[in-house]
Amino acid sequence: MANQRTYGSGLVRDVDLLEVLALPEARDGLGVSRVAELSGRDKAQVSRALATLADAGLVSRDEHTRTYRPGWRLFALATHATETHLAHLAAPFLRTIVARLNETTHLCVLRAGQVFTLRSELASHAFRGLGWEGVGVDPFTTSPGRVLLSEWDEDTVGHWWRTFSGAAAHPLPDLPGAAAEPPSIPLDQLTGKLAGIRKRGYETVDEEFEPGLVGVSAPVYGFRGDIVAAVNVSAPKSRLGERLPAAGRFTRTVADRISAALGAPG
User: Fold this and answer.
1) CA 209, CA 211: separation in Å to the nearest integer?
2) Model pTM greater than 0.70?
3) Domain 75-262 - what CATH class?
4) pLDDT tens across 16-42, in order?
5) Can you give the residue ranges of the HTH iclR-type domain (predicted)?
């Protein structure tokens, strides 16, 4: 029992250090002395603890300035926790769409340059309802992909598009990464479609991703006001094709409700 208490108290102290590195002052990194000062701990203890956290990837150390900042694994854990919470919160809202449209509905995010499904709610016929979670798809010819790109400025979209097309030598370090295939839509058409999404609040696709398949998507906003996910409905054109605009408006309404539940401004 004593060992468990010792381990637990050590973990709490390490979490305190991570909270110090999350302060606005730590944006450009903090040295050991400043971390010790802010945490009220001994400098030698802080130095050993930061070294351990760095080995685990929870903090990163700049070898030139000898300062520390949050590490890649901490961001990965935060992203996973956020997505898990988002998928759980969105589930009843997705079921509202299924009940209204009788089509399978997905919650999607942009990850590593592709669109991934976090959660699906199945319609009674379950058209393509299985197998999409965790599978990456093209962001350019899918409605959720375009929605997730729609808040980016034209320069960022253009630079990212050129990276995907092979016009850039390598993916930009501050962008989501490189896709497996080059863009299948000209840049001017893509920017026009993104502008349309910003105007009406949703996107539709008509057999662009796959023959006979149509879909609609609308953005979900987080508490910072940025797009964190897209709500998507996909179905055979024979069933949903004539209802696309109405389905888009309803999907946007439900996505707005999810945004409100996340604390999005406005």
Assistant:
1) 7
2) no
3) alpha beta
4) 888 888 888 877 888 999 999 898 888
5) 8-72
